[in-house]
Amino acid sequence: MTIRVKIDYIGAQGNGVAEGPDGPVYVPFSVDGDELEIKLQGKQGRITHIHEPSAKRIMPVCRHFGRCGGCSLQHISQDHYGHWMETQVKQALSHRGFENVTILDVEISPIGSRRRARLSAMGRSGGNVVLGFAERSSHNIIDVTECSVLKPEIVTFIEPLRKFLSGQLKNRQKMNIQITSAENGLDVILEGAGEPDLDLRMDIAAFAEEQDVARICWQDTKLKKPFYDFLSERRKPYVFVADRQVFLPPGSFLQATKEGEIALTRHMKSILAEADKVVDIFAGCGTFTVALIGDKAVHAVEGKEDMVVALKQSSNQMGKIRNLTTEIRDLFLRPLLPHELNKYDGVILDPPRAGARDQVQEIANSDIKNLVMVSCNPATFARDARILVDAGFVMGDILPVDQFLYSPHLELVAGFKRDS
Question: Which of 149, 160, 222, 226 lies 20 to 30 Å (CA to CA) from residue 190?
Answer without folding.
Answer: 149
